[in-house]
Each structure stands twice: as C-alpha cells, then as structure tokens.
Amino acid sequence: MKKNRFAISLFLVMMLLLTALVLGGCEDPEPAEPPPDDPEEAVFERNIKVGIVDTYTGPPTVYTYDALDAFELALKEINEEGIHGVEMEFVTRDEEFAPDQALSWARELVTREEVDVLCGFMSSASALAVSEYVREEQVPMITWAAQSEQITGEAGHSYVFSVVPNTRISGRAAANFLAELPYTRYALVGSDFEFGHAIITRFWDTFQELRPDAEVVLETYWPVGEADFTPYISSIRGADPEVVVAAPGGADQIPLTKAIGDAELTDEMEVYLHIGTDHAALSALGDEAPEGMYGSSSYHYYYPETEENLAFAEMFYEEYERYPNFVGYNGYITAHLIAEAFREAGSLDGEAFAEALSGLTIDSPVGPITMREYDNQLIHPFFIGKTAEHPDKPYLISTDITMLDGEKIMPPVEEIMEVRGE
Amino acid sequence: MEFFANLPEFSTVISQIFVGLSRSMILFMVAVGLTVSIGVLRVINFANGTFYMLGAFTAWSVALWVGGTAGFWVALLIAPLVVGLLGLAVEAGLLRRLYNRPRLMQLLLTYAVVLLFNDVTKLIWGVDFKSMRAPLSGYITFFDGLLYMPSYNMLLLISGPLVAAGLWYFINHTMTGKIVRATATDREMVDALGLNSNKIFAIVFMLSCYLAGLGGALIAPTTNIVVGMGMTILINAVLVVVVGGLGNIWGAFLASLIFGVGESLGLLIAPRFAIVFPFAIATILLILKPTGIMKSVW
C-alpha cells in the first residue's frame, strides 16, 4: 500500500513537471529573440556559429585551405567590431569530396553542433546534396567553390546562396569577351562531365546570339583524368580553328595547360582556358604555362590595383606567406557577407538571416558586390586576361585584364525562372 | 554543331596515327604484363594497374631526388626495378600460396593488393597531384612537315618496340623464356620434367610488374600522378588482353596498336564521340572473333 502511494505521488510530480515545462514553453517561446523592427539594437545571447563543410584531403586543398585561411582572416576583422555584441566562430568538417559524407557532416553540424549557417563546398555534388537537406531544415548555406549552375538554378531555393560564378555565368562571360574579337572559327573542348559540357554549352548559346557568323569547327570532350592530351591537341590543330575554348575539369587543368604550352598552340591560334589565369593554376605551373593564353578568374590579387584589393592581398600574404586564389577570396567575402547579414537581420533565426542576405550589398576588395535577390547568386565582376611573364615572379600572371561587369554577365532572371519552372 | 569533323589534311592524319601509336606503347606495357601473368600463372592480376601507378610515383620521387633532366633518366632505370622487386615480394609472400585455390580467390587477392597499395601510396606520397617535367619538350617535325609530334611522344614510340623486341628475345632465345613458353602451353608437362615452376612464376610475375612500372614511369611526365590512375589503364588493358587473345604477347601488341590508333583517328572522324571508339572497336573485334585476334592460350 505504501509502495503504491509512493508510485502515485511520483507519477503526479512527474506530470506536474511536464505540464510546467509545456506551459513554460508556450508562454515564452524564444525569450531572447529581439523584436524584428529594431534589428540595430538587438543583442545576441550567444556567439554565431558557422559550419564549414569542405574537401580537406586531396588535390582540391589548394583551394579549400585558401578559403579557410581567408575566412579566418575575415573573422579577425569581424570579431574586433563584433555582431550585436557577440563574436562569430566556426567549425570545419572534411567531406573528402564525397556527397554522402558531406550530407552526414551537414546533419551532424546542424543537429549536434547547432550551427547557424553552413558554408564551403568544393564539390558541386556535395553542395546539391546538402542543399536538399538545408531546404527542409531551414538552415542557410553558402557555396564558395562549387560551380554547378544547378545550385542556384533549377535546384535553388531561399536558403541556398552562391558566391562563386557558376557555369552559366562563366560561359556567358567568356562569350561576351570573345564576341568583341574578330574571330569566327571556334573549337570547343572540355572534360567529359557535367562541368565541362555546361561551360561549353552556356558559352556557345550566348556566343551564337552575339555572333551569328561564327561556326564550330570542332567539338570534343576527353575522359576526366586523361593521361596524354597530344591526340586532342593534334585534332585541334587539324581542325584549324581561330580560337579554342577549353573547359577542363579540376584534375585536367594542369596537364592540359602543360600540353598547350608544349605544343606552342598559342602561336597558331587564340586559346581561351576557363579559370586558366587563376593564381592557383598559374603558380603551380611555374614557367611551364604557355604565354599569350587567354584565361579567366573571378579574382586576381594584383588586379584591380585599387588600395582595397592590394591591402587585402598584402594582409593575406603577411599572415600566410602566399597570395590568395579565387576561392580564397570567396572565403573572405563569404565571412563578411555572413556577418553583415546577421547585423541586418538582428536575429539568429535562419529565416531572418536568409531574408537579410538575399539582396544584400557589401563592400569587397574589388568594390561593392550584391547577392541577387531572385536566385541568391552573387553579382560579381569577372576577369579575363592573357598570360605573360612577370620580371619579379617565378610564374606567369594575367595581363591586359578586362573586368567584365557582374550585372552584364548574370543570366537574366527570366532564364532562371524558366529552368525552375516558375 | 556538326557530327563529323571536316576532312583533315593528310599530314594531320599521319601525325595523329603516330601520336596514337605512341600512346599504344604505354598501354602495351601494362597489357603485356597482364597477358603473361594470365598466360603463365593463370592469374588475372588486377593489381597490374596499381604497379603502373607505383611506377609513376616512384619515378616522381627518384626524379625529384636526383634532380634536373638526368633525374628522369635515372628514374626510368630505377622505378621499374623497384616496382619489379615489389612484385616479387607480392608473388613470394602472397600469391604463391593461392595457386592451387579457385581463381576467384586469386582475383580477390590481387584486388586486395590494389586496395592495400592505394592506401600505402596515400600514406607515403599523400593525395595531392604530382607532376614532373619531361626530359624532352616541344615538337619535332619529320619529312618536311608531314609528321609533327611532341618529342616526348617520339621517345614513347621508340620505347615500345624496344620492349617488344626485348621480350621476344627473352622468350624465344633464352632458356628461361623457353620454359616460360612451355609453362604457358602445358604446365603439368613442365612440372613432370622436374623444372621448378615456382621460380618461373616468380620471374614472370616480377617481369609483368617491371613492365607495368616502366609504363608508369614513362607516362609520369605527361600526366597528373595520382592515386587511382592505375584503374583507368587497367580497364583498357584488360580489353586489350581479351581482344588480343588471352596470354598472347603479340596479340596484346597488335590490340594495343589498334586501340591507340583507333582512338586517335576516332578523334579526327567524330571528335564528340572519340571516347567510344576503342570500346566500339573492341566490341566489333570480339563479335568477329570471340577468342581474340591471336591464338589464346586458354
């Protein structure tokens, strides 16, 4: 009897506690949440936590460590000032270039580490996999290296952002630039996977509109990881184009550039290599890179020669004794975009953050940049130049650089609406 | 965009054929190792591509260690030897215990060797791309511009027939070679004659690894040296071995040539579909002659 009474009273106490908890939850859902109408006066109750999911093993590390280092550099600047009284911190996870691994890290970061934002993503497949997940969880994510146009295109939604020019933008940029040149005979070559085909297709779609007089004399794709580019070079030679537009995937970039140099192809025709003039590739090639080759990059540490850009490059150099490549730069602006969006939102809520980031404009080392409201794709200038030797550097740099206006090379919103079926 | 390319000039065709031939030589070196181990040991050596990869990595290290242009030539001598010795260790330590087991077990063992060496390679060399400088650069021209190809490919083109001739001499004019041939034809008879087939097997396996290593060392300057590079060539090599006739060295040579030239000419005929050409050729040849173009020893 005594035992029974004890059990009943225990049960009652438990019920009481449970009710108190439920009622407490109902009364005051998120007590520290500031009213959204005065975000500037908001005071955050805890630090902002960013989860970085990226590839930290293998060849992509030349980009991913640059991004991480630049991100940390930006955090120093951001935390000096603070965001609504708190600091921004981060954790990293290595997804080893595997989408399933990226997805499980993203889950872990969101559920266990309780990060506010996810960023990173060297691999497009990883970015797309995580994007599906964050759409349901309503956690914002930003990609700084994955270039698939699907991320902010057909697979886009209000929680996914991209600061890297995707294949749609790069293809259009190349078309806009080359349309100004007098040439009409084109060879289109690339690595045989989504990326290579996408760049070439977007380039030619735009180019045809700008230059209806141009023709394709050769179109070919090699298997990713091709060991010897010689037959492709001879095949290009045989087709006798005026311009070769090449879109090699990550692994093919260096050997293809070497093969172009060895064949002295730039003496016979114009060669345009997608991301061919980025610092990562040119510094790795040393004097084996061909002179006089057109190439693109969305960032150069030596151009534009504005005070802000040179200051950023020198700051990076002082810290790490090397200059940043385009993904490094993307890591830097991503940190600043995140900080500014939280300042604007005045809340740690994912939805408020995503709304604030969409359409946000900040000052970057290369000038003001805007996150386009419709598709969350960053509007950013794009640089195309020609390789040349530099007296003080052991590698080639891009010269005669044309800075393409970000607005002009963005695909029209209607185009994105169409692929999204809206 | 057009399906077929415009008709190329005659000199382009000639150059393309020679470039294709030069690529065949690397394929031949990997395929011949595979075919002799199939012919003599009756083992389908899945790890042959891995030994090719190890050849490239070892060559990279040796070239870096010696330095300069001489580095490449020293690497070309040393790397295949290192790989050959490693092959000997694998044969004596692992494979030898499985000769009397079902073939599936042997296949599994060689696959385990692939995984093992891939991981060991990652431990030793890391996972970054490695690239090395070719000892010859630029293009050379023959016959008044009719033939135009990279000097390095010319080196490859010469190396293939040298290897084939060396093999031919070894098999036809040395005692060991004759026993190897006899073992491939009738293993029981060789055993009955009291010859040590263990020793022959070890030599053959070592030789096949040596050749794969040589192929790897030769391709190293034109490519990214990276873990997993062996798998791509292994798939092509298996096709070459099957098309050429299992265990037949000359079949492997001929099939490699058909593959290499087919691929590079395919690039001229229908550039968008060049990747398909070697496989299309293999399919046609196998439909016409399912046992391979030369006599299979199986």
Distance between the termini of chain B: 47 Å
* Unreliable runs of chain A: 24-32
Query: Would you identify the CATH architecture of the largest domain in chain A?
Result: 3-Layer(aba) Sandwich
Largest sheet of chain A: 7 strands, mixed
| Tally of individual helices of chain B | 11
> Within the largest sheet of chain A, what's the order of strands?
7-6-8-9-10-14-15
Q: Using the coordinates shown, work out and report the CATH topology of the largest domain in chain A.
A: Rossmann fold
Polypeptide structure, described:
- The complex is a heterodimer of chains A (422) and B (298).
- Chain A has 422 residues and is of the alpha/beta class.
- Chain A folds into two domains: 42-165 and 306-380, Rossmann fold (3-Layer(aba) Sandwich), CATH 3.40.50; 172-297 and 382-409, Response regulator (Rossmann fold), CATH 3.40.50.
- Chain A has helices spanning 2-27, 61-81, 99-111, 124-137, 167-178, 194-210, 230-239, 253-262, 279-285, 307-320, 326-345, 350-357, 406-409, 413-420, and strands at 48-54, 88-94, 117-120, 141-143, 160-162, 185-191, 215-222, 243-247, 270-273, 294-297, 361-364, 367-371, 378-379, 382-388, 397-404.
- Chain A is built from 14 helices and 15 strands.
- In chain A, a hairpin with an 8-residue loop joins strand 14 (382-388) and strand 15.
- Chain B has one domain (13-227).
- Chain B has eleven helices and two strands, in the order H-H-H-H-E-E-H-H-H-H-H-H-H.
- Chain B has helices at 10-41, 48-66, 68-93, 103-125, 151-173, 175-185, 187-192, 197-219, 229-244, 249-269, 277-288, and strands spanning 139-142, 147-150.
- Chain B has a two-stranded antiparallel ribbon.
- In chain B, helix 2 (48-66) crosses helix 8.
- The model of chain B has no long low-confidence stretch (mean pLDDT 87).
- The interface between A and B is large, with 38 and 45 residues.
